[in-house]
Write a structure and sequence with these properties.
about 25% helix, alpha+beta, six-stranded antiparallel β-sheet
Amino acid sequence: MKRHNTENIDERFLKKPKLDDEYQWMWKNDSNNYVPYSEAINKLIEEAKNSGKPTARVDDERYIEFATGFQRRYDDVTKIRTVKRKTKPKNKDDHPTDNHKPPKQTKLTDIQFNLNTTNVKKKMR
């Protein structure tokens, strides 16, 4: 079997493309919470993005502009909402990745140990 030389091939062509259902699109509401689009709308947005279109239609009144990351209204383009695209969790117990780590949790035993060593040091003085 003939092997192909892959040294000069752009790495993007060697990687397996992500499937449409691996991402979740969300919009930010007035309470600063992100609300996921329905699965049907999410799929349409992903298809538009993957085909290189500059926008994706959300419904009769709104569309997403990929270059700015905004959802806009057709009748008033100054009315905008922020949108984002997150990787969906692989397991139902996982949370969508947002490229940040949760803060380190302090255990009660760590606090007790710190208090005890502080008290011991004070008594030794």
